[in-house]
Write a structure and sequence with these properties.
The structure holds two protein chains of two kinds. Chain A is α/β, with parallel strands linked by helices. Helices cover 37% and strands 25% of the residues of chain A. Chain A contains nine helices and ten strands. In chain A, strand 7, helix 6 and strand 8 form a beta-alpha-beta unit. In chain A, helix 3 packs across helix 4 and helix 5 runs parallel beside helix 6. Chain B is 80% helix and 0% strand. Chain B has nine helices and no strands. In chain B, helix 2 runs antiparallel to helix 3. The chains are: A alpha/beta, B mainly alpha.
Amino acid sequence: MLAQAPHPVSNVQTTPYVRVDGLNKRFGALHVLKDIDMTIRAGARVVICGPSGSGKSTLIRCINGLEPFQKGTIELDGITVGKNARDTAKARRQTGMVFQSFNLFPHLTVLANCTLALRRVLLKPAREAEEIAMQHLTAVRIPEKARAYPAQLSGGQQQRVAIARALCLNPRIMLFDEPTSALDPEMVKEVLEVMIAIARTGVTMVCVTHEMGFAREVANEIVFMDDGRIVEHASCKAFFSAAAHPRARLFLDTIMSH
Amino acid sequence: MGFNLDFALSTIPTIIGAIRATLLATVLSCLGASALGFTFEIIRRGGGAPGLAVRFLIDFIRSTPVLAWLYFLYFVMPFYGIRLGAMTVGIMGLSLYYSGYLAEVFKAGIDAIPKGQQEAARSLSLSRRDTLVFVIAPQMLRNVAAPLGNYLVSILKATPYLAILAVPEMLGRAFDIASETYRYAEPLTVAGILFLALALIVAYGVKRIEQRLLASGRR
């Protein structure tokens, strides 16, 4: 089912980095993830798409240990996620997460948002933490707002800060949970540009998004979900040229016609 | 026997002399009640047996009169060999009593913080303690500044309860003068005005702090 990665620039490894096995998740009576099996190789850039309510966000949140689940296993770099706190924390140290609603700390400046974990988790001295943070703020093209508070920024700027904050911990995998869905249309582009730049660094990326243009440009694999199941997991090229599943074709038709 | 202004003025130095005890009791009780209330709320949030015990304790504290606590601590504890000064018992009693209310205030303040804040802290690998200190507590303080200020004024106004333990605070001192002179209107009026002045100062201070907290980084 998993086609060969088509992009010539790809540095995708053959070793699985994330392995999801028989994952089942319920919110009460609602069965949101049904027998999910998925492998993401190191260096892969995966876009998860599908109609709303299909379980995409829940899946990515499970990978970051933010959602408990009832059955199955998730392994990240061989570390089990979601079973015990210590391993989940260990896996998280390799993971950067970007949320739909940014979740910046409103009482801290942009710079302090970025340095908090550097100082408290990696125990970097203040000076070094600020240097690292400024590097990443420069990379997301917002260094001039380092002293501003999140509320003084536009949505696009806030999301770029959130991306920089996640990058500060030097993650090996970046998870994006609908990073542009809460943005005004004119701000989507600046965030996607930053994400494209991150993709070029070779970090493993998993991104839940409806931005099919972005998917086509950046992803080497597409996962299509519907009603709590992965109905298609294909190379980007294969998915866009000939999605196998009728639900996926319908979804593409709907989204592309806009 | 009308209101004698000269007599009223003559009582001011004596009553103001007791302002030290009133302020000491207020400040230490505020600190004690805040620390205890916050600790209670964190334990309650943790759940389990300790959470349940604290939940019961908070309800128990809130449904008993503050005077009962003061009498209990002052007159019953010595039977068990615990003998403390009147001021110490007074501060303990007020701290304990108001901690139950402040725990509720802190609960509301923490509940109002969006869930995404905790999630962001977790995905950044911050420890539980760091999340509490650097993410939750500062935002909670901003949310609770106004109700917390109200309770701080309440604590100030509750210090006259300590008169029953013979703590020399302002209202007690005023009443002493009244008992000695059989003139009640003047010393009680003076004490009332002094309490009003203190309460206004506290309220103004809280307002300023609240404005500062809100000014930093909120739309």
